[in-house]
Write a structure and sequence with these properties.
Four copies of one chain form a homotetramer. Chain A is α/β, with parallel strands linked by helices and about 325 residues long. Chain A has helices at about 25-35, 40-55, 75-85, 95-105, 120-130, 145-155, 165-180, 185-190, 190-200, 210-225, 235-245, 255-265, 295-300, 315-330; strands at about 60-65, 90, 110, 130-135, 140, 165, 205, 225-230, 245-250, 270-280, 300-310. In chain A, the strands form three sheets. In chain A, strands 7-2-1-9-10-11 form a six-stranded parallel β-sheet, with helices on both faces. A three-stranded antiparallel β-sheet of chain A has the order 3-5-4. In chain A, strands 6-8 form a two-stranded parallel ribbon. In chain A, helix 12 links the parallel strand 9 and strand 10. Chain A is globular.
Chain lengths: ~325, ~325, ~325, ~325
Amino acid sequence: MTGDPDREEFTHDPVEHMQVRAGMSVGELIDEYGTAGIGAADLHEAVDIYAEMLAGDEVTNFVGLAGAMVPAGMRRIVTDLIREGHVDALVTTGANLTHDAIEAIGGHHHHGRAEGEGSLREHDEQLRDEGVDRIYNVYLPQEHFTAFEHHLRDEVFPELTGSVSIQTFTDALGRANARVNETNDIEAEAGIAAAAAANDVPVYCPSIQDSVLGLQAWMHSQVTDFTLDALADMTGLNDLAHESDRQGALVVGGGVPKNFVLQSMLVTPHSYDYAVQLTMDPEHTGGLSGATLDEARSWGKLEKAARNATVLGDATITLPLLVAGALDRLDR
Amino acid sequence: MTGDPDREEFTHDPVEHMQVRAGMSVGELIDEYGTAGIGAADLHEAVDIYAEMLAGDEVTNFVGLAGAMVPAGMRRIVTDLIREGHVDALVTTGANLTHDAIEAIGGHHHHGRAEGEGSLREHDEQLRDEGVDRIYNVYLPQEHFTAFEHHLRDEVFPELTGSVSIQTFTDALGRANARVNETNDIEAEAGIAAAAAANDVPVYCPSIQDSVLGLQAWMHSQVTDFTLDALADMTGLNDLAHESDRQGALVVGGGVPKNFVLQSMLVTPHSYDYAVQLTMDPEHTGGLSGATLDEARSWGKLEKAARNATVLGDATITLPLLVAGALDRLDR
Amino acid sequence: MTGDPDREEFTHDPVEHMQVRAGMSVGELIDEYGTAGIGAADLHEAVDIYAEMLAGDEVTNFVGLAGAMVPAGMRRIVTDLIREGHVDALVTTGANLTHDAIEAIGGHHHHGRAEGEGSLREHDEQLRDEGVDRIYNVYLPQEHFTAFEHHLRDEVFPELTGSVSIQTFTDALGRANARVNETNDIEAEAGIAAAAAANDVPVYCPSIQDSVLGLQAWMHSQVTDFTLDALADMTGLNDLAHESDRQGALVVGGGVPKNFVLQSMLVTPHSYDYAVQLTMDPEHTGGLSGATLDEARSWGKLEKAARNATVLGDATITLPLLVAGALDRLDR
Amino acid sequence: MTGDPDREEFTHDPVEHMQVRAGMSVGELIDEYGTAGIGAADLHEAVDIYAEMLAGDEVTNFVGLAGAMVPAGMRRIVTDLIREGHVDALVTTGANLTHDAIEAIGGHHHHGRAEGEGSLREHDEQLRDEGVDRIYNVYLPQEHFTAFEHHLRDEVFPELTGSVSIQTFTDALGRANARVNETNDIEAEAGIAAAAAANDVPVYCPSIQDSVLGLQAWMHSQVTDFTLDALADMTGLNDLAHESDRQGALVVGGGVPKNFVLQSMLVTPHSYDYAVQLTMDPEHTGGLSGATLDEARSWGKLEKAARNATVLGDATITLPLLVAGALDRLDR
């Protein structure tokens, strides 16, 4: 028993014990998380950093969005962040843009059932027969892809000729989504790409080929001179990284969006000053999706002095908490 | 494209998109989770079920509490649930009872740093030299174990002679914790075992040997006739299961507490009518900690008609959400 | 680009690239793992350490065995390790002892199907109706539990009266399992408890109540003076820890067996000199099951100089690799 | 106890118990896995399917390779599969191609240390100062990127003008890697891209921008008319899918390579007849990386009758086992 009870390092910052009650606000809950350990402490730190990233205009915010975030119901949160000026560049997947457009033109995803790997595969075979695609516990009737194909053919492709950047394509898609949306609240319901187009926020999609959106683009390229330039967007993203004063990264999920956001600093004199990631991938996979933000520091993607936090867990639970908590801080 | 757009199964329950805002309440956030998919939907369902479990006096609530929940700052949430009458039996670990008692007698855990498996082991060696135990990102100076030893010797063991049930021991511990607590808010700060003792809630600890509390009990048994009966508690737990009308299980973490709660139905004519589990273990480990509640149905631990939900994620994040959300429902 | 290409730390130990071929031995495969990174490197290190633990008689080997290792087909590997003198004390779960005995008396587990959490719960309901218990993708017809009950009543309980240690009970179980086994290869097929009893290896089961074995023991205690002493076994385990010269821990899965093995050093002047753990729990859960062995160093459970390795992955894949690889080393 | 012991479904396929011994072959180990449950059973099934995919010339094999497989030492296994005619199309990441080229031109990765998320970030800061990039537990001195830049400038870019397909670029890279390699065993050491180029195996890299290789391509595009066409490769991949008789997918890791392989069937009348995936992502993330192959069935990416297996675990451990096991089967 050699401990020195007076050593400040081990005695100055006690874990307190969270209290919860009926009627408490999300802001209060986040404050309570700050008193606790393990992941709760990480979530509190992430809110603290994200609020600092969003306060004022000083920080240029890069957002990476991977995973089935639109099918899972996170579309409006991202749309609102864009509309409120909290996103300066968005890197996402072709899948999220596909599902965002399907909702913009009136389609819907539906609550369904998840099936385990070893489970009754008959269930997925039955869905196949009935023309329903499954995304974990979300269903999407396949006829929506037909409507999406018509939307691209009628509203998006006519605007585009020759070799264009992917961002030019996502911008045209966003404007078309807004144009055809028929809800009462077009501004909110037209979705992510529409909000980005309306607010001059570039949407980058470096692996666009890997999606139904990419397959449709390829089919269109087979019968016209249209194609997509894989490299052109890097100029815009790198310029933004170069010209900004302070840089922040919000990374939801891993994959290409995560690294594409982080690597944008490699060809600038800057590194990220702030970074928050929400992921379900632990670091021991050795993959980029689960890699720690400290590892990114060794590459020079993050400043040595950067504030950063990683929250391990389902982003459909943690993203709403993070955003509600940070908005609450801004409002205080 | 063979889908029938009119098939109700695939069109009646659209995924809506969560909205968050500054100042929203946790209750509102939980409602929003209910519109989304993947884990958010599971969390919403869990709140719905837990609120039904807590409403009225009809359901007898069994709680399993594993993991480092006390060092991580969840002590007050469990204490308050007990004080509000929401726990009829608690199954937990010797570690949680040890750390609960350390806080009751004035000790504190402290925010520290986590170290990765492959990381600078020098850091843990240094902690060793300085007499500080690490629990992920929480530190505990070892001298608190000396104080705990004195507490047991002076306040708890004198009450116990011969072979007693483990629950008798935890009850004596709880009363001693309350007796010596010197805070202004003894009722709240004396902690889990104290609240349970004050409210006649039995605390079961089937693997008590596997903890510092168990080591101390063993050392005391070496010099007196004191010992603990491993089987005696099963009578009380099984009687409670037998005599209750409707049964609900809240399982936080896996391990022994999870199965000990679930198996209590195997020797009764009942099975659980409700079950909610918060776990970080996925089912594909094949272990009991990650096993689905459907699997428990095959064993007859859950009623075929039981409502159940599993939320995969860090319980330091999800337990406060679950409890705050359920209390909010009760209050509406 | 500030790197110093001559810095030895970064240039002396190149990752080579694994080669595999038809007909290669497991020993050769393990050697190849040693050239690679991420988890392969950890597995190679684990084999290296485990081989050193098994070589000669110098190291006293404590084995913790959690998880559904018997239903999953790992029973013979553990049995053979015991028979070959590679286990000095075994800490396991009541479930593993229950399923070990079921196989000893002629029962079998069967390959079945896993079901996802959100999956067709009708499948588990059907299993319930048909009297089949599911353990992930393994099935066990419930009538085997009736046979097990008879076995305990006829062969085990008659040997035991009054309050006995849990190890006394597992020893009687092991001898009974050997006695009734009717296979041609009784020594191998009678299983883990039988091999332990035959080789004077103590089997500890600190959470025995948490199993069908524990439920049966409790039912027997209701009608006789039989009961189990929860603390008695700690004397034997701690004495073994105290008296041994060098200590090694093999920890398969986490849970109570892991910590009970590790904490046995807390009341001795020793700490483990070697430790290998196979687990699916990452450290960020904050729980003991996923806690790193470095964390155990802060508590004094491991020597500061101890060699240790953690392999993250399914123990049904990694345990056979580890054991085959270590035996191969001993044989070279 | 309602089980019918004669029901064949529950009694015909007993779990046997694995045996391991010194000197056993990997082929024998795989056979043993087949007797066990949980993940061992999945690995055995995967070997069985993969051996069937590789036997004869009937099956066209698409391989997706994500994750840090080259830094982790899996480069030679993939190279050899290509050279032996077991790969008909490879989809991988820019990172794997970057690191493959670095080794081809004489660079090496080195065994280093992993650091936990919450760990001493000073360590990564120090690596930054010393010019060393970290990939989990693998180090790469940054000067290798300078050599890689020169390699592209001197050997690869001069061959390419105007807008070319990504596959044209990876082919030129592979030929250049072979040309400059100075080892005694050029054919093996020149690596993945070189082996693919020499064997007319197309290498697709749909998210090439997301890598140092992509950054270099972009920088070259800034000063010449060179650029990469994002869509052109889909023609070749989809034609291969269209023209083949039977299709098999081996998916290592998730990410873009996984889905790009799987979605190639969406614009053909075919679906995969065989699929094996090695992943660390569980399905409950809701993301594509962890999505089950049954889910892919609902989309029509897999045939309803397709044989498929998923092995959850570290691919640096499971890929060598899978390939060695399958090659052994072919050799029997």
